[in-house]
Amino acid sequence: MAVGGCAQAGSDSGSTGETGSKTAVTSASEWDPNSWKAKIKISPRYKTEEEKLAFRAQWLKRDAEFLELETPPDVPLVEWQGSLELMDNKNAECFKERGFSAHAIPQGGVIFNPAIPESQYEAYKIAAYECQAMYFPNPEFLTDWSEDQLRVIWDYWDEYYIPCLAAHGFTVDTSERPARETYVATFHTDAVNRWFPSNDGALLTQIPPEVWKKCPNIPPESELYGLE
């Protein structure tokens, strides 16, 4: 699927309220997020196994401190998680193996239903540490987005995500969306006013799983992270 009509990298077109060129008249069945291609080529930042393992070691150290684990277990890496969806599914599976009612959700992340009782919280902290250590995500997913990655995200939302939701009957309010380069310039410095196409979070609970699969709210890993 070819899409276009937005600014090229480096411009500041795409003013508040604009939408992408893909229109809602497209059949809902035709949408495929993997068909969207970014105008900017993103290259992975972690190119060697040593770089990835060093990142993992530092992250797990901070994770242990956050979870207040004085003697965190020594957990070997089982496998890197090469996609956000796989990461969530593996985490949920790992939690279930440890007796927790975890479920990966289409919007991203893992939820527990029923909620974890206070009496099991210490066991949960150990499980959370072990599961992440075993099935650690590619460090690309845990590193702050670069300016070019933010441009890719803005373009994806404009060209694919917002029109895809429209084709499925959901309208994103873009009246307060910043222009492309304004968004890039302020994303890391103005977290309070950071804009996302979620209607202040309301859409996150309204969109059914089958629509999330057609209209994920972030670009494919190949386009956002340069991963094959």
- Average pLDDT number: 88
The count of strands amounts to 2
Strand order of the largest sheet: 1-2
Unreliable parts: 1-25
N-to-C terminal Cα separation, in Å? 19 Å
The total domain count is 2
- The helix-strand sequence is HHEEHHHHHH
The outline comes out as globular
Radius of gyration: 19 Å
**Class inferred from helices and paired strands:** mainly alpha
Biggest sheet descriptor:
2 strands, antiparallel
Number of helices: 8
Q: Your description of this structure?
A:
This protein has 2 domains: 28-43 and 144-224, no CATH class; 49-142, no CATH class. The protein contains 8 helices and 2 strands, in the order ααββαααααα. The protein has helices at residues 49-66, 84-97, 121-134, 147-167, 180-186, 202-206, 209-214, 221-224, and strands spanning 102-104, 110-112. Strands 1-2 form a two-stranded antiparallel ribbon. The longest helix has 21 residues, at 147-167.
At a glance:
This protein is 39% helix and 3% strand. With 228 residues, the chain is mainly alpha-helical.
Topology of this protein?
Layout: H1 49-66, H2 84-97, E1 102-104, E2 110-112, H3 121-134, H4 147-167, H5 180-186, H6 202-206, H7 209-214, H8 221-224
Antiparallel strand pairs: 1-2
Helix pairs in contact: 2-3, 4-5
Question: Which characteristics define this entry?
Answer:
228 residues, mainly alpha, two-stranded antiparallel sheet, 2 strands, 39% helix, globular, disordered N terminus
